[in-house]
Specification:
- With 364 residues, the chain is α/β, with parallel strands linked by helices.
- The chain is built from twelve helices and eleven strands.
- The protein has helices spanning 95-98, 106-110, 118-126, 149-152, 155-164, 182-189, 205-211, 218-230, 250-262, 279-290, 295-301, 310-326; strands at residues 40-43, 53-57, 63-65, 76-78, 81-82, 111-115, 136-138, 169-173, 194-199, 235-242, 268-272.
- The strands form two sheets. A seven-stranded mixed beta sheet has the order 3-4-7-8-9-10-11. Strands 1-2-6-5 form a four-stranded mixed beta sheet.
- Helix 9 (250-262) links the parallel strand 10 and strand 11.
- Helix 9 (250-262) crosses helix 12 (310-326).
């Protein structure tokens, strides 16, 4: 995807601040990656954003259709950001930066694309007669509650639009900032199906600091689960990733599921680490620095491609489900919305039609 495909007509959005650098002339038949007048590049000197560059763009569309061959249980997504300051070494979305000719390693962690017109654009697209009110998933590419959201505050406008059009949606996040929008989530859940999942793959703090350096701690994420549940919004946990040889010991899995259950999660869904191109190279480089003795084991385990062998995935899934049953929770069930009923049950139903099977984020 070229940069100009993400930007409005540059003639309509001239910026007065520093523009992104020119990358050279486009090849015949191509559009230049950086539209000089369409992209505003900013850096902020505050400690939380030091070393991070933000590229502000005005997108032409914010509703993205999931390819038909995808394993995802939903058809539409909204992604207000590209790149992610969570800096998870295993993040499968790293390859998406390559589509923009940006670095998929440190560049993915520090070059963040911000679709600054996302809320108003979504509201306009939801109002279209062509839109049929299908379920919309968020947090499926990069986290919509990453650190940048604290500055750009795009999600309140996005959730507000979904609430106003009673459009079902779900959010997957590692970010505690979602609690800022608790009131909006409650309002939306009163009129449509709202699914929230928090990603907690393990509770080992040393491993967390090493592989997810930009994220809130697992304990803080579980506090999000607890808070949402206390306010009546059922919250599931995507136990992802389970990292072979680093977080898959039975004692580690037991400790993680126990903590998830104690936080009041409605479900737990394990997902073994997968290493797609882009993520694979970055993760293996990290592994070589931090755990060089495991490199050959990973080469064997992932010799057939991005996914661990079926026998390994089934073993992890079976054991986690057994633990979940032991601790009183179960696996996520597709098509089971996490919803707060509207206070006035006699009022006419306002919910837009949902996409059955797309209300859970269980395959990310």
């Amino acid at each position: 995807m070229r940069w100009d495909n993400l930007a409005d007509d540059p003639q309509n959005h001239r910026q007065n601040t520093r523009n992104a650098p020119h990358t050279g002339p486009a090849a015949p038949g191509e559009t230049a990656l950086f539209g000089m007048d369409a992209v505003t590049t900013r850096t902020f000197d505050t400690p939380e954003f030091r070393g991070i560059t933000f590229h502000e763009i005005r997108a032409r569309s914010i509703l993205n259709r999931v390819p038909g061959a995808s394993r995802m249980p939903f058809e539409w997504t909204v992604n207000p950001y590209r790149g992610c300051t969570h800096a998870c070494v295993y993040c499968f979305a790293r390859k998406t930066h390559g589509y923009l000719d940006l670095d998929t390693g440190i560049g993915f962690d520090s070059q963040i694309i911000v679709k600054i017109n996302a809320p108003e654009l979504l509201r306009r697209q939801l109002a279209s007669a062509r839109w049929q009110g299908a379920h919309i998933a968020m947090g499926t590419n990069v986290d919509c509650y990453q650190r940048a959201e604290g500055r750009y505050q795009l999600m309140p406008g996005i959730i507000g639009a979904l609430r106003d059009y009673a459009n079902p949606f779900s959010i997957l996040t590692k970010g505690t900032l979602i609690l800022r929008d608790l009131d909006l989530l409650l309002e939306a859940a009163a009129v449509t199906d709202v699914g929230i999942s928090v990603s907690v793959g393990f509770v080992d703090r040393a491993l967390w600091r090493s592989v997810e350096p930009g994220t809130p701690s697992p304990d803080r994420r579980l506090d999000v689960v607890r808070t949402l549940t206390d306010h009546g919004i059922g919250c599931g946990v995507l136990m992802a990733p389970v990292i072979p040889f680093l977080s898959d010991h039975p004692d580690q899995l037991r400790a993680t599921v126990r903590a998830i259950a104690a936080a009041g999660a409605t479900s737990v869904t394990p997902l073994v680490l997968h290493l797609r191109p882009g993520a694979r190279e970055w993760f293996i480089a990290w592994l070589g620095r931090e755990h060089p003795h495991l490199v050959r084991r990973y080469e064997r385990l992932y010799a057939e491609g991005a996914y661990a062998p079926t026998w390994y995935q089934r073993r992890i899934t079976r054991y986690v489900h057994e633990l979940a049953t032991e601790f009183g929770i179960g696996p996520a069930q597709r098509g089971t919305p996490r919803r707060i009923p509207a206070p006035d049950k006699t009022a006419p139903a306002a919910a837009a039609p949902t996409d059955p099977g797309a209300t859970q984020l269980s395959l990310l």
